[in-house]
Amino acid sequence: MPQIVIQNITKTYTIGNERIDAVRAASLEIEKGDFLSIVGHSGSGKTTLLSLIGGITRPSSGAVFYDGTDIQALGSDLLSDYRCEKIGFMFQFASLLPMLTVKENLLLPSAFRSRRSEIEETKAKELLSMVGLVEKINAYPPQLSGGQQRRVAIARAFMNSPEIILADEPTGDLDEDTEMAMMDFFRKMNRTEQITFVMVTHNTDLARRTQRQFRMSHGVIRQQ
């Protein structure tokens, strides 16, 4: 059974008197351990599709299944558990909290637990080391460059040991060398941890480094 099944899903927005299909009758099966990319122009529906897979946005029609369960049939608590425990999000912007240190930003997923374990502290350090920023662990986001903030956000997405990474332009603030280093990191995590990656990117060179490539246009997704 595929890990994720997107079944004839449409997301429609109404702006004034106009109805816009951000995603139009999309269907896709994603196996555990897949690494796929989605390219397309701005406004093509890529980000909306990620938010539908992640349970952030509710579809107008169709369904998203995770391990055979329609995620929109889950109650609010179980849907929240799905987002927090199964999904690692990399948004278009780093969105770090400026009043927290780098380490505290990484530990946010465990902030509401009664006790924070030493294992989580160790994991935060290991992930920062993997993205080349362990020396910035006690720095604050305003003290970092845009590219460094992006790498902190990348590390943060792995803190909850996700089964699926949904990455929206995850290398947008990075120079070419660092971008390639982060792609190598993604491929390592995909290969060694069997983490499924769904990556949205404008960069066709990056897309070619993934196992499967798709293109979206006017809300329609097609495999290349």
Summarize the structure.
The chain has 224 residues and is α/β, with parallel strands linked by helices. It has helices at residues 46-53, 76-86, 102-106, 118-130, 146-156, 176-193, 204-207; strands spanning 4-15, 18-30, 35-39, 61-66, 69-70, 87-90, 164-168, 196-200, 212-217, 220-223.
List the helices and strands and how they pair.
Blueprint: E1 4-15, E2 18-30, E3 35-39, H1 46-53, E4 61-66, E5 69-70, H2 76-86, E6 87-90, H3 102-106, H4 118-130, H5 146-156, E7 164-168, H6 176-193, E8 196-200, H7 204-207, E9 212-217, E10 220-223
Parallel strand pairs: 3-8, 3-9, 6-7, 7-8
Antiparallel strand pairs: 1-2, 1-4, 4-5, 9-10
Helix pairs in contact: 4-5
Q: Examine the coordinates and then state which fold CATH places here, giving the name of the CATH topology.
A: Rossmann fold
Q: How would you spell out the order of helices and strands?
A: EEEHEEHEHHHEHEHEE
Instruction: Give me the count of strands.
Output: 10
Q: From the alpha carbons, calculate the radius of gyration and give it in angstroms.
A: 18 Å
Helix content: 25-40%
Give the CATH H-level superfamily: P-loop containing nucleotide triphosphate hydrolases
Shape summary: globular
CATH class: Alpha Beta
Q: Biggest sheet, open or closed, and with what strands and sense?
A: 6 strands, mixed
What percent of residues are in strands? 25-35%
Please give the CATH architecture: 3-Layer(aba) Sandwich
Structural class: alpha/beta
Q: Could you list the spans in which at least 5 consecutive residues all have pLDDT below 50?
A: none
Please tell me the total number of domains: 1
Instruction: Compute the average pLDDT.
Output: 92
Within the largest sheet, what's the order of strands? 6-7-8-3-9-10
Q: Give the N-to-C terminal Cα separation.
A: 23 Å
